[in-house]
Design brief:
With 238 residues, this protein is α+β, with helices and mostly antiparallel strands. The protein is built from eight helices and seven strands. It is elongated, with a radius of gyration of 19 Å.
Length: 238
């Protein structure tokens, strides 16, 4: 009889497999980044709204013929009605899901990271104020969880952020990919409580430019080329 296992997952991405199955790419609380087979997705047997980007599910799996398990039973650990119905929150969830899907490799994610992500998803779900800066704050906080939080040594004497060194430097030392304005914004997000950073007054061009620079920073330290398609969607919406 196939072995069964219970776990909690965060959904990142879905890939079609055959005519009626999907591969659910997810973060597993026990095993880190992994994939699961989901049968019946094309026959109306699966409530796909459960498997939205950043959906948090309690699942029961059974072992398959290969290494990938099959999802046998599932239920939402949190309903996340706000993320499902609010187009702004849905767009942010899509972006965060893509970011995590591209940043986190197979097997990565420990209990601390999983707890952080679950709490951040619930923050997005329950936020009643402006969420236009949510993805900017999330990207900066994610850097810390991945082990390369920028050093917050900003000062008038060191006003430029140098991604390769992960710290702020004088104008005269190096050419930085972060402008003085973007460097100051990074300092403010690093130094302010999340609730205050979420309320910073920014326009759409400032948000887009900063998010792109943070993607470049992540690319530099992860040694990958992050091409985040959903970033353009956020630019249009906000």
């Amino acid at each position: 009889m196939p072995a069964q296992r219970d776990s909690r997952i965060i959904v990142l991405h879905l890939t079609k497999y055959g005519d009626s199955s999907l591969v659910v790419h997810a973060l597993d609380a026990e095993r880190g980044r992994t994939g699961f087979f989901l049968r019946g997705a094309g026959k109306g047997k699966v409530a796909l709204n459960h498997f939205q980007s950043l959906g948090i599910l309690d699942i029961q799996t059974v072992s398959g013929k290969g290494e990938m398990e099959y999802i046998k039973e599932y239920e939402s650990a949190h309903q996340l009605a706000g993320i499902k119905t609010n187009p702004y929150k849905s767009a942010i969830a899509m972006f965060v899901g893509e970011l995590l899907y591209r940043c986190i490799g197979d097997g990565a994610v420990d209990a601390e990271m999983f707890s952080f992500l679950e709490n951040e998803i619930l923050r997005l779900e329950h936020e009643e104020g402006s969420i236009a800066n949510y993805h900017l704050c999330f990207m900066v906080r994610l850097c810390g969880m991945l082990g390369f939080r920028p050093k917050d040594n900003w000062s008038p004497a060191t006003p430029l952020f140098l991604p390769a060194a992960a710290e702020f430097i004088p104008f005269s030392d190096y050419i930085s990919t972060f402008s003085a304005e973007e460097s100051l914004l990074l300092h403010r997000i690093l130094s302010l409580p999340v609730e205050e950073a979420m309320q910073l007054k920014l326009n759409r061009e400032q948000r887009q430019a900063f998010a792109q620079k943070m993607a470049e920073y992540l690319s530099c330290h992860l040694s990958i080329n992050l091409k985040l398609k959903s970033l353009a969607v956020l630019h249009d919406i906000f």
